Amino acid sequence: MASNKKYWQSVEELNENSSIVETLRNNEFVEQIPTDEFLGDKEALASSSTSRRDFLKYVGFSTAAASLAACEGPVIKSIPYVIQPEEIVPGVADYYATTMNDGFDFANIVIKTREGRPIKVENNVLAGAKIAANARVHASVLSLYDSMRLKEPLISGKPASWEDVDAKVKDGLSKAAAGAGSVVVLTGTTASPSTDKLIAEFGTKYPGFKHVVYDAVSSSEALDAFQAVYGERALADYDFGKADVILSVGADFLGDWQGGGFDTGYSAGRIPKQGKMSKHIQIEANMSLAGSNADKRIPLTVTEQKYALVTIYNVITGASVSVPKFANAAYGEAVMAAAKQVKAAGARGVVVSGLDDVNAQLLVLAINNTLQSQAFNPGAARLTRKGDAKAVAQLVSDMKAGKVHALIMSGVNPVYTLPNSTDFAEGLKKVKLSVSFSLKEDETASLTTVAAAAPHYLEAWGDVSVAKGYYGIMQPTIRPLFKTKQFQDALLAWAGNGLAYYDYLRAVAATSANGKSWTQLVHDGVHVSEVLPAASASAADYSGAASKLAAAKPAAGLELVLYTKVGMGDGQQANNPWLQEFPDPITRVSWDNYATVSKFDAEKLDLENYNVANGGLNGSYVTIEVNGKKLENVPVIIQPGQARGTVGLALGYGRKAAMKKEMIVGVNAYTLYNNLNSFQSAKLTKTAGDHEFACVQLQKTLMGRGDIIKETVLKDFNTKDASEWNIMPVVSLDHKEVPAASVDLWESFDRTTGHHFNLSIDLNACTGCGACVIACHAENNVPVVGKSEIRRSRDMHWLRIDRYYSSEETFAGDVTRKEGASGLFDSVSTFNAMEDPSENPQVAFQPVMCQHCNHAPCETVCPVAATSHGRQGQNQMAYNRCVGTRYCANNCPYKVRRFNWFLYNKNSEFDYHMNDDLGRMVLNPDVNVRSRGVMEKCSFCIQGTQAVILKAKREGRVVAKGEFHNAAACSAACSSGAMVFGDVNEKEDPIVALKEDERAYHLLSQIGTQPNVFYHVKVRNT
C-alpha cells in the first residue's frame, strides 16, 4: 500500500506561494557560473590557481559546462602521423642493431626504441658480435638526452649555421693548401675502415698532412711491442675460455684493459664442469676487478711486477736473466709457483700484462709464443686501441712552433685529458683554424675556432672493426635531436666530394662485408669474415728487454698507479648521472674518485677512514705530487689488497666544462699522467680536513657468515658430497633436527600451473662488473638521488652487488678462526678482529635484488595489501595502494626495498635527467614513474615477461625454450652468463637444470621465505 505521507526539507516548502521554492526547483545553480568569461580569457586561465577539484565543484560536472569548456578552452595542437611508419606500432618496442664507438668503448649492441625514442641498450647475440655492453655502454643511451649537448655549431663561441662553418673551414684549408702551414686531423681510435679511408683521401691535397690518433688512456707501449713483432700496429686478442691457467701481471682484463670484452670467455672457463675449471692468478698493485675474481692474488709494486714478469719469462723460456729479490720473500715464492703452473699448462696457459712498458709487452708476446697458447690470438688482432703517444707529443711541439695551420679534431678532448694540456692550449692559440667535433662545448671545444656540434652515435651512421675479420655497422636509431653534422659528412663536403657519408659507407661496406647484402648487414649489425693467420713473429731482443725490466729501480717515494673505473672510464660520460651514482664494484663508493692506499701506508701517513653516526663514510685528504705537479685535496680510501708502497687513482673525474654542477666531482688525475704512462713516482702529504664519501656498503668483511656467501675449493667440490660443502640449514621440530625447507608456517598452494619465474645467479661467473645495475636503471625508470642522499643510505638501486672481503687470506680461514673462538670474551675479541679485512683478502661478489619469496615476510605485514604475490612467482607492488609505512622494508631479511623519500621526477632539487624534458625521453613507458612516499623494488621485469607471453599469444604458439631469458633486464645484460632467468614450469628451460644443480642454494633459506632467486656455490681453484 502506497504511503500518502508528505516529506519536506525546509519550512519554506510548506508555503505553497513561495517564489523562492519555485526558483530553486527549476534552477540547479543559484548563481550563474562565469565559465564563458573565465575559460574564454587565456590570460585569466593561465594565471588562475584554481585546482581541478575546485573547477569541478564550480561546474558541478554539468554536461553543458563541460561542452562549454571544450569549446572555449585553449587548444593544444597534436600532429598525428599522416602516414604511420609501418615499423612503428604504438606500445610495441622496435629493435635496431648498431655498434657503440666513442674511441674508448666499443660494443656490438641492439637498441630498444619506443615510438622513435631509443630507451635501452641490449646485447647483440648474433654470431659475430665481438664485445658485449659494459655499464658505460648501457648508460650511453642516457647521454643521448644530455641537456648540456651542443645544439648547433659555434664560431668563436657564437651560434652559427653550417653554411658559415663550411665557408670558414674551406677558406682556412685553401690557405693551408697554398702553403700557409700543415693540416692535421686528430682523432681518437676510430676502428672504422670507412673513416680511416676518408681521412686518408681528405689529406691527399694538403702537403705534410697528418692523421694523429690520440687515446686519452694510452696503450702505446703495447702497440709498439706488437708492431715490432708482427709488423702491425694492433693488439693481440685473447680467449680466456681456452686457458686452464691464466696469469695476469697488472692487466685488469675484466675491466678496461685493451678495450674489455673478455669476461664472456673468462666466465665460461670459471664455471666448474666435469670437475674442471680454469685457475686465475693475478699480480697487481691496485685491487682491480680481475684481481678480485682471481683464485690467487699477489700484491706487488709496479717495479716488482716487472721483476715478476722476468721471473715468469725465465721459467717458461729457459732464459736466465738475473732478477732482484722481492721485498716479501713469500710473494717471490708465489710468483715462482705461478710461473711453473703456467709452464705445466703449456698451450692451455696464457700470460697477459697491463704494464705501460714496451719491454714488458715484448716479454708477454715471447712467453705466449713459447707456450703456443691457444688463448693467445695475434691473428684476429684487436683494433680498439691505436693511439700513438709519440705522435701526440710531436703534434703539441709542432703547434707551439706555429707549424700547424689547421687542426681538425673529432672525439677527443686533449685540453682535459693531456697531462701537458697547458702546452696544448698554448699551441692551439697559434693554430689559425681549429675545429673540434664534439657532443659538448667541452674544455677543448670552448677554445677552438669552430665548435662543431657532433651527433651522438645513436644518431649517426658508421662502421667499426673491433678486430681483424670482425665488421660492424653503426646506424641511427633516431633523427638528430639538434643541428648536428657528422665529422665524416663534413670532411666529404670540405674535400669537395659530393657524396653523402651514407653512400660512401655503403661502398666501403660492400668490400668489408663481402657476401652479405647491405640490408642484411644493417639488420644483423655484424659480419665475420675469414680471419687470416697472423704474420710469423719476427725476432726481437727479448733477452735485452728482460734485462732492462730487471734493472728497474724502485720509486723514491710511493708508486702511483693510474687506472680507469668500471663506471666512469676515460670520463667522456662524466655528465651521465647513472654512471656517477653507480657504486664502484670494489670500494662501493659513488660520486667520487680517490686515492687508494694500503692500511700499512695509511698508518705511516696518519690517514684514516671512519664511519659517522648516520653510517656515512669519511676520510682524510692528501696532496699527491708527481714531478713537481701537485694534485691537492684528494680524498683517501684505505683499500684492502692495495700493494704496500703504491697508490691508486682513477682517471676520468674532475671535469668542469659543459657539466651540470651536481656532476662536477672528483679530481683530474690526467694532470699526473706524464708521458701517457699509468705508472708514476709520487709523494703523498696529508692535508687538513675530512672528505664525506657516498658509500653504499658499510660492512667490510663477511666475518664467517657462510650462509650468505657459500664457497668451497675445487678439490672438495670434486671429492666430497655436496652436503659437506653446500650445507643446508636445519631447524628443531619436535626436538629433532630436520631440514629447514621441510618446516613452514605458511600454507602452500600448487605452483605447477602456468608460468613460474626463477632467477639463477652463479657466483663463479659473476665478475661484479655492474652492467646489470645500469640495465635495471634504464629498464625500470630507477631515479638518481645524488650524493647527499646516497650518503644517507637512501640509494634507489633495485639491484645491488654486495662485495665481501675475507678477514683472513681466504674465506675458509675466516671459518676456521671463527670456529676456533671459545667463551664469551674470546668470541668478542675474535669477531672484533674479524671486522678488519685481510691485507690481501679474497673477494666475493653477490648480486642481491628482491628475492620474490613465495612465502614473503613483506606481504604478511603490509596493512594495505600494497605488496602481494602473483601466480607467476613475482612479488608485486601496487604503488597507488602503498601509504609508505615501510613495515615491509623492516620485515625484509634481504633489505632490498627502497623508499621514495622525495619526488625525484620533475624536481629541481634533484636536477638529473628526470628534471628536464629532454632527459625524460629515456623513460620506459611500460614502467610507471613512482612518486614520493611509496616503496619500490625489483619486479622481475614483469613488463618483460608479459611482453613475451603476449607475443607468443599473438603468434598463436607456446613460449619458446629460453625465450624468457632476456625478459629480465639483469639477465639480458649479463655477458658473463652469471644470471639466467626462466620459467621453472617449462621442462626444457635451462633454469630447471640450474635449480636442480648440486651447487644451488637459497639466500638465508633457514628462515623459510622460499625465494624464487637462487645462487650457486662459489668454487675456488686454489
TrEMBL record:
Family matches, as PROSITE patterns: 4FE4S_FER_2 (PS51379)
The 4Fe-4S ferredoxin-type domain is annotated at: 757-787, 841-872, 873-902
Read off the Pfam families from this record.
Fer4_11 (PF13247)
Q: Which Gene3D superfamilies match?
A: 3.30.70.20, 3.40.50.740, Formate dehydrogenase/DMSO reductase
**Which NCBIfam families did the record assign?**
MoCo_extend_TAT
State what protein this is by name: 4Fe-4S dicluster domain-containing protein
Organism encoding this protein: Flavobacterium cerinum
Q: What broad taxonomic lineage does this protein's source fall under?
A: Bacteria, Pseudomonadati, Bacteroidota, Flavobacteriia, Flavobacteriales
